[in-house]
Specification:
single chain; 56 residues; four-stranded antiparallel β-sheet; 0% helix
């Protein structure tokens, strides 16, 4: 089994900035993107694209 704590590609949770509580789960490369990730994705609760920020 892979180690989650010190993995190069950890599993992260993306939380909607619209305040709906909708989340996506993805992986990111820690070496290439050490900062928190922000992606523009679809939120089906508000039916539009909003920013999703990485939560820890």
């Amino acid at each position: 089994m892979a180690k989650r704590g010190t993995d190069v590609r950890p599993v992260i949770r993306m939380v909607s900035t619209a305040g709906t509580g909708y989340t996506y789960v993805t992986k990111k490369n820690r070496r290439n993107t050490p900062d928190r990730l922000v992606l523009r994705k679809y939120d089906p609760v508000v039916r539009r694209h909003v920013d999703f920020k990485e939560s820890r």
